[in-house]
Amino acid sequence: MRKNKNILPPKEFAKRVLKYSIFSLLLVVISLGIGILGYHYIGDLGWIDSLYNASMILTGMGPVNVMESNNAKVFASMYAIFSGVVFLSTVAIFFSPFAHRLMHLLHIEEIED
After folding, report:
1. pLDDT for 113
2. How distant is the alpha carbon of residue 46 from its chain centre?
3. Cα 10 from Cα 3, distance rounded (Å)
4. The predicted structure's pLDDT at residue 19
5. Could you give all domains of the chain from N- to C-terminal order, each with its CATH number?
6. Pseudo-torsion of CA 31, 60, 65, 82, nearest 10°?
């Protein structure tokens, strides 16, 4: 980064925030879809129960329905781990434009080797 580089104007910053927000939302929707399909087809749950379970796991609240088969238990375990990573990644992606702007405002420079 150059010290004389100005921060983005508000309109450009809003575009960047919108772009990162859309990407974050897309990541959540795809992750939720994976959970819904897995709970429906592997866990033998109805569509609404699959949505409910996937939503609860993805947001970190925990499982709702008990998984009966070993395959369903393995899926639920893997989806829980996946969801934890996705949740943290989504938060990081969503807030990165704000953190970047804050670093510019505070004049925090990247250390060059």
Report:
1. 53
2. 24
3. 19
4. 95
5. 11-105 (1.10.287)
6. 40
